[in-house]
Amino acid sequence: MHRREICTLVGIGLLAGCAENTDTNAASGDTAAEERGESGGEYTGDEIPDDEHLTIFEEFLQTNGVTVQALTLDVNTVTLEYMTDSVTDEEIAAEIGLIAGGFFRALTEGFSAERLESEIQTADESPQATWYAVREWYDEFEDGERTDDELSLEVLETLESV
């Protein structure tokens, strides 16, 4: 697969993850969402502790079909191990885009993490590849210093087979 095609797929996933609306929980009567301040327009992001951001991120991943094996926060680094059935470059790129987009969305909502370290595992829990995403890239994107394609490519270029 050509790098530009993969970049486009990751970009679509990043945008989908960033655009995912957590207010759907509040609209469905989720009182925990209301307690977190996700309704009423008064939420500032600073009110949610990082461990709850981690839980929300994990729920996002699971809701979107990502099989989370482990998800931890150590200082400012989120470590994710997830199982995949994806075999094609397109499927893997889309999955990475979805996960990175969810991480970037969490940053927008006040998550203080600086980095997401991910390990892709096969069905037998063997490591297949690793990749990462960092806050600095997303901040540059938000500031208009980086396009969505550049952000996607930056994440994709970290992908390494194990």
Strand content: 15-25%
Q: What is the element string, with H for helices and E for strands?
A: HHHHEEHEEHHE
The biggest beta sheet is recorded as: 5 strands, mixed
Provide the helix percentage: 40-55%
Low-confidence stretches: 1-9, 19-43
List keywords for this structure.
about 160 residues, alpha+beta, 5-stranded mixed sheet, 5 strands, about 50% helix, about 20% strand, globular, disordered N terminus
Write up this protein.
This protein is α+β, with helices and mostly antiparallel strands and 162 residues long. It has one domain. Helices cover 48% and strands 20% of the residues. The chain contains seven helices and five strands. A five-stranded mixed sheet has the order 1-2-3-4-5. Strand 2, helix 5 and strand 3 form a beta-alpha-beta unit. Helix 1 crosses helix 7. The longest helix is centred in the middle third of the chain and has 20 residues. It starts with a helix and ends with a strand. The N terminus is likely disordered.
